[in-house]
Amino acid sequence: MNFFKALFTISILLLSHSALAENWSITQLHTNFGDALNPFTGESSFTRTYTIEHASEHDLGDNYFFIDFLNDSLSDGFQDTGIYGEWYTTLSLSKALETSLKYGPIKDTGLVFGINAGEEGLMKYTPGIKLSWDAPGFDFLTTTFAGYIDANGGVQKDQLAKQDNSIFIDLAWGAPFTLGSQAFYFTGHVEYISGRNDELDKKVNEWLLAQPAVYWDVGQNFNLDAKQLMVGAEWRYWYNKLGTADIENQPFLHAIWVF
Fold it and tell me: For each of the chain's 259 residues, which pLDDT tens digit applies?
């Protein structure tokens, strides 16, 4: 129920930005296939993930969200059928203050607020600061420093155990490149979340998740728009996946279609 409350909140906040002039927006459908690790059993299973992803920029900043629909090949209570989403909105201080905040390689600073939500009452808030870097050759390069604030209902509400608050750091990038006549895109992110304890006094380890990906813009060979249809591979390295002591280190096949 909390997940759907979060989606409702996201919808309201997105609608609240509709009065602002939208500079650009993009909505994509992703499909992702590969062996994903269940860190609670140590077993891997073939997992299909379908994702709706949206990004847009308006006069005062930008919005980004994705919703994952997951299904794996094992009936083990982990991602048999699952749903998970994240949403972030950023207020650009240079746009809000109508002045340049460029400092060295930093071209802008933003105030960011995010919601991470999933099943079993999973709910996290991520308020913080996002730095946008002036990086030649990149469409974007950002670093986010935020709190990782727990809002789970806890075991008393038959939800995930409440956890201590912690720290969230994320590096995200996107860069186009060409090989011969073919266009490619190098993108991904690396996130770090610090360790914490839950209300049952169990330790949740810090984790590091890296998801670099390279996509081939296959659609341009069929007279489609640039980046409308892309296929490629994503590599997922997840140290202490979901706070356990297990490491996931796997490739995934990936396809993207732009609406």
Answer: 444 455 445 544 554 444 556 688 999 999 999 999 888 888 889 999 999 999 999 888 999 999 999 988 887 777 777 899 999 999 999 998 989 888 899 999 999 999 999 888 889 999 999 999 999 999 999 999 999 999 988 998 888 899 999 999 999 999 999 999 999 999 999 999 999 999 999 999 999 999 999 999 999 999 999 999 999 999 999 999 999 999 999 999 999 999 8
